[in-house]
Amino acid sequence: MRNIFALTVVWLLLALPGGAVPVVGSADFAIANSPPAVPDKENPPAIVPPDGICLIHEKGAGPKVTRNDTGAQLVLGERLTTKFGAANIHSTANDNSRFHVDLTGAGPFPQAQLPGSMALIIAGRCFMIYSRSDPRQDGKLNLGSVIHGEQAMRVVAKVLKAEPQLRKHPGHKFAVTFEPDKTSYRPGEPITLTMKIKNVGDQTVCFHDGGRQRGPRDNQFGFTAFRSGGFGKAVLDTGDPTNFGGIGTNRVLKPGEVFSKTVRLDSWFKFKEADTYQVRASYRLEFHEPGGKTYCVIWEDFATAECSVRIDAVK
Predict the structure, then answer these.
(1) Torsion angle of C-alpha atoms 12, 17, 22, 26, degrees rounded to 10
(2) In 150-210, where do the E strands start and end?
(3) Any idea where the domains of the chain sit in the sequence?
(4) What pLDDT digit, counting tens, does each position of 34-65 carry?
(5) Domain 174-311 has CATH 3.40.50.300
(6) In Å, what is the CA distance from 27 to each residue of 18, 23, 24?
């Protein structure tokens, strides 16, 4: 029996590839005795910079970061602070694809006058700072930035410990009309339209009125006009589209209520020739939560309608 056992063992060993002898822990032995890895100089490992507010340069030597909004490669400069202050994040697009970040009391910063461009660096992502206040006595600043993409926003919100304010449809249902103050006009005569927005839904809504009327015309309105009852050529907009802001307020419209407002159409067009013009009118709406304490847009829309303006020939 001993001889048979010995022969069996020898046969098993010879059956291994090349007559190799199994060694316990051979894998560990191979790793321990393998040559050290050679660093890849062509593709060095990516370095994720620490979170903070940093200077950013368009050119030069240094680690690269990618802008969140354009995808451009920038050079990471000096980190100025790791203290972001109090953060507020709110959506600026109905589909929640773009967000604005307000940082209150960020810093303090090491210098009163900050040169160059700055950016938020969070989880290796670069978010350019587009607005900043004058430095306070304690060296802190209020800053504004923009985030593109909901996934990126979630990462930033987690680091800044901010609850993002997303947009949502307010459930509005409107019946909209624009009516001229006369049935016909002489060429070059002033034309006043009355807009009426009736809440025909079952939800109380709140929207902003004003803020675009300090210039030559109220650019919360928008118009296009076409000759021959809408089948002819477009009429040239001869007005000034510049918006200088102005006083505004929130309007609350309960179910069944009507909001009315007048506007001078001749601030957009000079109807000098006899014709029937089809006018497509719109009024920009920025919705807010009724009774909301913060100025935050929850939805953007337009109240739209069409009307006809007739210009008679001079007799």
Answers:
(1) -160
(2) 174-180, 192-199, 205-210
(3) 52-160, 174-311
(4) 455 454 445 444 568 999 999 999 988 889 99
(5) no
(6) 18, 9, 8
